[in-house]
Amino acid sequence: MARPLRIVIAKAGLDGHDRGAKVIARALRDAGMEVIYTGLFQAPEQIVQTAIQEDADGIGLSILSGAHMTLFPLIVEQLKAQNAQDIVFFGGGTIPPEDAEELKRIGVREIFTPGAPLANIISFVQRECGNRRELVG
Amino acid sequence: MAKMIERPDTSGAQPENDFSAQEKTWENASAKGKRRAGAGSGAVDRTISDLPLKTIYGPQDVELDLARDLSWPSIYPYTRGIHPNMYRDRLWTMRQFAGFGNAKQTNERYHFLLSHGQHGLSVAFDMPTLMGFDSDAPQARGEVGKCGVAIDSLADMDTLFDGIDMGDITTSMTINGPACIALALYVAAAEKKGTPRAQLGGTVQADILKEYIAQKEWIFPPRPHMRLIVDMIRFCRDEMPRWNTISISGYHIREAGSTAAQELAFTLADGFAYVEACVAAGMDVDSFAPRLSFFFNSHIDFFEEICKFRAARRIWARHMRDRYGAKDARSLQMRFHTQTAGCSATAQQPENNIVRVAYEALAAVLGGTQSLHTNSMDEVLALPSEKAAEIALRTQQVLAYETNVTNVVDPLGGSYFIEALTNELERQAEDYFKRIEEYGGVIEAIEAGFFQREIADASYRYQRSLETKDRILVGVNAFEKPEERQDIELLRIGVEMEREQARSVADVRRNRDQAAAQSALERLRKACADPNDNVMPHLIDCVKAYLTEGEIVEAMAAVYGRYTEKVAF
After folding, report:
1. In a domain? residue A136
2. At what angle do helices B222-239 and B549-560 cross, to 10 degrees?
């Protein structure tokens, strides 16, 4: 049997709001995935390193401090620099719709805002990370 | 034990005058009604915190000793309020939390709020300031001025209060890790304008325990942080008699996903821990307890919140009197600020948040709050726009001046339901106190991850109940608008602001008297290492020498170390 999908849930920068990240981490775990939660205050470089070392299928980044337009692009850059763009990068937080569109344009696969149903997040991760697994093996 | 309401002796009365017979008749009618409604009626029979709710409450549900449990306003145990005539004596303070961008932008917002009838200021700092980093630190990238104002040095604090009489207004500063530095900056800015520190009124949040529990904006490990708090409380006792030394906060515990009972219990447990630390440092309880204040969340479960506020006052009074031997009435009276629940707001149909905020504000007022912040409808998306901030303030003004709820003290007191739920919340809080005690105290329970686990479990349960639609959130899991487009105007902080602020803090470092700065920093280092010294006067010297927040924190961390959390979810 194939090993379960492996997802890194990350908090970057100085943002201490970890309620959403923890809820998502649990929900993905309850849906049968392996979840690595990075803990708070991680640098973008560390997050990408963790994902590569753990052979993760996806990275979910949570930001509620307003720094999303800086920190999401830094992770996109790191993924490129490490030639790891196959890792599905998604995120969530207090992110206005125009910013979400811009982030999707630069390569963030999906942005979930407060109120997004867990079921949608789970099915997104299963679908996208499942596709990634099929491609990468 | 005397009960508040005795069942009337109706033996021999006519059935229509017989209370028990009426009860039986009602029970039958109620059962029939419930059968008719069946499943799917949308009725939720538990509070948002999972406390079971009955359909109706009667005398059998309340065990209440009038003198012991209820009393009168301004009389122990203060269940009904701390002032004799409550809002007839003094309306609550309308205090809107505000801060964004640089000190100049925030100063303009303060002038706007004060000119629109706000009573006091409340400073929101940005993340780097809250975590002890200067705006040009690598950790600060992307965060400067985003969720509050960037304050790096005395130069910024001067600008923040430009044109504002600091002896005339009161200011609340929401900052915890570097609270003692923020207080030093406030004192220094006021003294530069000629306002003596003894005249300053306001609050610095300084509640570090709830940072480890919920908000996660810490710097040093718990034990040295407690020493800083004790130093600050002692300093204020001696030199700043009008200053509220600490705002013991449940707000963030609730925002992190706790239940009402957890918010109540963990906050009061933190309060007791500060009292114990000060007493252990040799202070008389009545010399500092009157200046302790609290800060609660007002969530959307209307009655549960009102009961939480009532229970909080009673628990605080009982423990302060019986456990800590406080005698001054002011030590027993819990004063608190309330903010409506950010986590109850939704990104979907954000205008609906105006309505949520109004209900939550009403609960806070019926619960007897001393001051209130009403959230803006757009805070789930960005910092409040000026329009949204104005509506939030007007919400309080309508409540205060139009609804007439201010005229009667504790108007829900004596309701079977309210008293039963108040008792139940007190009971649950007492249970939690015992469990915390079993760990050896608050710090030990933090180190064991107890609070963090309890809160994460509760928040996950709540999220699940939304998923299964056991709970309805309007616009989110019911009554959604497909293809919703948001067309409310949002406040944005540009990137150029970060560069400007980084340049300005570098200028401050370059242009000061370096010898004076180094000597002040050296004295601070010594004081940090000496448990018999008080760091506060040295901090004031440091900020007056234009040392930046980041430099001061760095020097302190060299003595105290930095906290890291054990990760769990």
Report:
1. no
2. 120
Q: With contacts defined as CB-CB under 8 Å, which chain B residues touch A16? A: 211, 215-217
Distances (CA, A) of A131 to A57, A109, B27, B279: 10, 13, 58, 61
Substitution target in A14, A46, A101 with the highest count of B β-carbons within 10 Å is A14
B567·A18 Cβ contact <8 A: no
Q: Classify the C-alpha dihedral B137-B143-B145-B151 as positive or negative.
A: negative
Whether residue B128 and residue A14 make contact (CB cut-off 8 A), yes or no, is: yes
Domain contains A106: yes
* A23: contact with B, CB 8 A cutoff: yes
Contacts of B471 in chain A (CB under 8 A): none
Residue B208 and residue B222 in contact, taking contact as beta carbons nearer than 8 Å: yes
The CATH number of the domain holding residue A117 is 3.40.50.280
Q: pLDDT tens for residues A38-47?
A: 999 999 999 9
Nearest-Cα residue of chain B relative to residue A95:
B381
A and B: number of Cβ contacts within 8 A = 107
**3-state DSSP assignment of residue A89:** strand
> How far, in Å, CA of B524 to CA of B553, rounded?
11
In this prediction, does ipTM exceed 0.90?
A: no
Query: What is the DSSP code string of B319-336?
Result: HHHHTT---SHHHHPPPE
Enumerate residues 6+ apart whose C-beta is below 8 A from B528. B535, B555, B556, B559, B560
Confidence of residue B382 (pLDDT cuts 50, 70, 90): confident
> With contact defined as beta carbons under 8 Å apart, do A25 and A119 qualify?
no
Q: Which of residues 78-107 of A touch B (CB under 8 A)?
A: 94-97
Q: What is the pTM (predicted TM-score) of this model?
A: 0.93
Give me the pLDDT at residue B37, please: 74
Name the token pair of B62. 């309340």
Q: Which residue has the tokens 């001696």?
A: B238
Please choose, from the candidates B362, B360, B372, B356, the residue with its C-alpha nearest in 3D space to the C-alpha of residue B405.
B362
Protein fold of B78-467:
TIM Barrel (3.20.20)
Question: pLDDT by residue (tens digit) across B445-477?
Answer: 999 999 999 999 999 999 999 999 999 999 999
Q: Does A19 touch chain B (CB under 8 A)?
A: yes
Residue A62 lies in a domain: yes
Q: Which residue of B has its CA nearest to A68?
A: B142
- Domain limits for position A22: 6-131
Q: What is the pLDDT of residues B274-326, one digit of tens each?
A: 999 999 999 999 999 999 999 999 999 999 999 999 999 999 999 999 999 99
Domain total in chain A? 1
Question: Three-state DSSP class for B57?
Answer: coil
Burial of B417 (0-12, 13-18, 19+ CB in 10 A): middle
User: Tokens at residue A33, please?
Assistant: 């995935």
Of A80, A77, A91, A74, give the one whose Cα is nearest residue A8. A91
Is the minimum CB–CB distance between A73 and chain B shorter than 8 Å? no
* Closest alpha carbon within chain A to B257: A19
Beta strands in B139-218 (DSSP E): 170-174, 201-204
Residue A100 has pLDDT above 50, yes or no: yes
Angle between helix B352-366 and B386-401 (nearest 10): 40
